[in-house]
Amino acid sequence: LGVRPGTLVALGLGRSLDLIVALLGVLKAGAAYVPLDVSYPHERLAMLLEDSGAPVMVTRSDWEQSLPSFFGTTLLLDDDAAMLSRKPTHAPVVPTSADSLAYVMFTSGSTGRPKGVMVAHRGVVRLVCGAS
Hints:
Elements: E1 8-12, H1 17-28, E2 32-35, H2 42-52, E3 56-59, H3 61-64, E4 73-76, H4 81-85, E5 101-106, E6 116-120, H5 121-131
């Protein structure tokens, strides 16, 4: 789908095994994810998609109607399962580093318009190692 290191991929999946698998897939491709909480108001989700500029969104057909119109490529994990099963299973070789972007999370917007906070792999590793 053209996802490369630095590409933002929107994930509208809710808390599920599909979300975990999609997160790992995005990170293995060297890309970064933008989480979309489908319980958010439609207008907020539309703003997150627009501001992030993510060219790809991963979701499921049962969540798709909860998400705003998207003009990029939408991957439906359930409907596109046959196509996905034909993809390579080996890990892609992509250049990443501790400073590579891992995800973009948007602030609550309590002072106005929400802002995207970019988090590098270094920050994720620090968080995980600090929590153990």
